[in-house]
Amino acid sequence: MKLVSYSTAGAVRIGCINGEQVVDLNYACLAQLEADGAIRAKQIAEAFVPANMVEFLQGGTESMELAKRAVDYALNHVDTIPYPVIHNTEDVKIEAPVLNPSKIICVGHNYREHILEMKRELPEFPVIFAKYPNTIIGPQDDIPYFSISEQLDYEAEFVFVVGKRARNVSQADALDYVAGYTIANDVTYRDIQRRTIQWMQGKAVDGSAPMGPWMVTSDELQDPSGLEVVLTVNGEERQRSNTANLVFTVQRLVEFLSGLMTLEPGDVILTGTPGGVGFARDPQVFLKDGDVVRIEIDKIGALENKVSKAN
Description:
With 311 residues, this protein is of the alpha+beta class. Helices cover 22% and strands 32% of the residues. The strands form three sheets. Strands 1, 2, 3, 4, 5, 6, 7, 8, 11, 12, 14 and 17 form a twelve-stranded mixed sheet that branches.
């Protein structure tokens, strides 16, 4: 499935993409339970297929399977369902798939060509830092460009989302703990990032993590290696690589991170950016008001956002 968070009528709910439609997972589950004659159908639907992405992922495989069956039911019985279960995508706002993760962990220096262009050596261990939920915006939002900096940079990122609690997980079992994959742009204020030895201040500005447009579940995207990653600015290619070039694979990152901390359902992991960032180009080139940044990743789709000056 392609899972989304979407806004309608002042509420944010979750659904899956079906062509040009969004199928609401919670309402679809509720409708199926009622059709089956379940007692306390509403409470069961809220428990197993809630309208919040993190809570839904906490239900693990059982919730995912219930949601799949409910979507099939909704598509075959839409005319008899008394809830707003199906929307045209143009009638709702698609948000970032995960809006309030407990952790956003970013991996630095994880593509060989990017490490070389930044004049560093291949790391022995993953370089990690954090972003926070205040940075998350969706595929239909503009990237806010605050006047605190004159060096706004882009970073295409292949992202995985944790699907169940993980602690001390082996590489062999790692992909069993991944709910799915999405795209992010690790927007970076370079001059702020580099004014101290800690990167976080240049990475944690509001709106600096566009994400989406959806999360492709891991049953559909079973192999995270070999995916082409391309970033363009106003149609000009700036970054191109392949997830086969990751120094630390998804499996290694799950093993490494779960050895440090307990990963929770909904945690978002940005796996690093390829070479070609604006800071490392000669001459340097940074984003400006009105620029359109587009990231495409095989088997996932495209994330596109416009840069917009902000106060």
